[in-house]
Design goal:
heterodimer, A: 245 residues, mainly alpha, B: mainly alpha, 5 helices, 0% strand, flat
Chain lengths: 245, 123
């Protein structure tokens, strides 16, 4: 019997096991419906359910900081970002987003399999081999129902948030500072890409069909050499902006 | 592990109480409200001009910027929590404080940049 199976059997009676079964089912179901739902906004809402389920799994794994981060950043901010993008593109379904890239499906399947392999290796690695995080086999452990990895108990000795904070501000100070620079770069990139056509004349909430200048943005994505065919008004506003640059 | 999960009993109780509260509010309103439904009640606006087109319209990319800024400052806030927990008890207080100041400087520098670029204008 492999250590992995032994551990599963030892835990099968516990409350944690049933929480894992139920929440795992919720996570899988919401992930599947996120992929399969036709309405993009419904898919985004399923993503919220999925994020919450994953957060509960993190909490049962004794990673409270990660659980709260999952809810605050992903279920809170990232999904808002997704919804804004959906509103930006329009969710009427009039645009075909499939089959844009040649060999898209094959590439997606291959990359998905590769990701699955990496994740499976990451999950299995602590239980295999000797010089890993859990190099004490289950049979040799004093307490069979004790923590899976001794390293986790050591890291969480003073509480999870304190452990994470201690590591961030000692061993991982440099990545932490680089994170701030990364955030700045992302913000500047978004501003540069998003502020291409800023003109007070087109600041309306009217649908795209009513405002020619907004339409141009969409057309530009498809073919950038359409400038000559643009309406005169939009051309003028573009000239204005290039003058102010 | 049992003892560990029971520490989340408060969270579970709060979640159940929240769901019950909403369910109760809906149930009470269903009992109390008058129930004379006809087709016109289901229209978007019972009076006024009929809506044209669908509810979905293209929003300007300008509003995406606000969501993006929200994400960035959300991540910034997230890192402040472990910092605040560690700061009080560590023996390297000045170092940790300085590290966070540098982090905050870099993240906050985006704000005057956006201000100057006019991204923050809500029109």
């Amino acid at each position: 019997m492999t250590p992995l199976l032994a551990q599963t059997e030892a835990a099968s009676g516990s409350a944690e096991f049933w929480v894992f079964i139920v929440i795992g089912a919720v996570a899988l179901g919401s992930a599947l419906s996120m992929v399969l739902l036709r309405n993009a906004v419904h898919a985004a809402l399923m993503l919220v359910v999925n994020f919450f389920a994953i957060a509960v799994l993190y909490a049962t794994l004794d990673a409270q900081f990660l659980a709260v981060a999952q809810i605050i950043v992903y279920a809170g901010a990232i999904v808002v970002l997704f919804l804004f993008v959906l509103m930006l593109l329009g969710v009427a379904g009039d645009q075909a987003f499939t089959g844009r890239i040649a060999g898209q499906k094959t590439t997606a399947v291959l990359l998905g399999l590769a990701l699955f392999g990496v994740l499976a290796a990451g999950v299995a690695a602590p239980f295999l081999g000797e010089g890993t995080a859990c190099n004490v086999p289950v049979e040799q452990r004093v307490d069979a129902e004790g923590p899976l990895c001794e390293g986790l108990a050591v890291a969480n000795a003073d509480g999870n948030v304190r452990g994470v904070g201690f590591l961030i501000f000692t061993d991982y100070v440099w990545p932490f500072e680089v994170t701030s620079v990364l955030l700045v770069v992302a913000a500047i990139g978004a501003i540069v890409l998003g502020k291409r056509r800023e003109d007070p004349g087109e600041l309306t909430d009217a649908p795209a069909s009513a405002v020619p200048a907004l339409r141009d943005d969409d057309d530009d994505e498809a073919a950038s050499d359409e400038d000559a065919a643009e309406p005169a008004a939009a051309g003028a506003s573009e000239d204005d902006e290039e003058g102010t640059r | 592990m049992e003892a560990y999960l029971t520490s989340y009993a408060t969270v579970l109780a709060l979640t159940v109480a929240g769901i019950l509260l909403v369910a109760l509010a809906f149930a009470v309103s269903r009992l109390v409200r008058p129930d004379r439904e006809y087709g016109f009640k289901l229209s978007s606006y019972e009076c006024g001009i009929d809506p044209v087109g669908t509810g979905w319209s293209h929003t300007h990319i300008r509003y995406y910027m606000f969501a993006f800024m929200f994400v960035i400052f959300d991540v910034e806030t997230l890192f402040i929590f472990p910092w605040a927990v560690v700061l009080g008890t560590s023996e390297h207080q000045r170092f940790i404080f300085g590290v966070m100041l540098v982090f905050l400087f870099f993240v906050t520098i985006t704000l005057p940049y956006e201000w100057k670029k006019g991204v923050l204008k809500w029109v």
